[in-house]
Fold this protein.
Amino acid sequence: MTEYRQSRFRPPRGAADLLLIRHGESEPAVMGKPFPMKDGHGDPALHPDGEAQARALADRLADAPLAALYVTTLRRTHQTAAPLAARKGMTPIIEADLREVCLGEWDGGLYRQKAAERDPVFLKALYDGEWGHIPGAETTAQVNQRVERGLRRVAQAHPDQQVACFVHGGIIATALSLATKSMTFAFMGAANASISRLIITPDYMQVRGFNDTNHLPDHLV
């Protein structure tokens, strides 16, 4: 008797399989003490909880068949990748186009305060899906353009391979909204050290996972 079992997903031939990992929790913002800046971006280090998240992530992916590790220009991604890189003996590659959204006058920690206070400009940006409402920030169109460029560059370098990209919450939201053609901020809120998964072919991008935190203990989610 012929049996027809349900199929299991496999990336199509030539596709790149990207694990988009949000960096671990970074240092808290403190009024009057802005973060160090790098190329117009706030550049905080990891909080101790973020370091613990990075170690848990390394345990999760220690045996994953990763062809490469990617980080951005900002140190919180380097620090999150470091335990896994050490376990695998790999040197992360910098992909600058996957750095966090530039928040203009609100960068360096002020954005967190404005968000916590539900500032009217923050709410308008959220409602409209437009980063550019923040004074001096990148526009959503600019972010979309560079993120897609960075994703495509990584994908083109890794056909039929899986790679881990240590990136940022705003970038994960951008990547998945581009892939699904959904609202700009539909995928905002990925947890620190969470894993999302994106399949990229020359013709399309496909979301296969979002905000996987199964490797994190409850107190670190």
In short: The longest helix spans residues 140-157. The two ends are 48 Å apart (CA to CA).
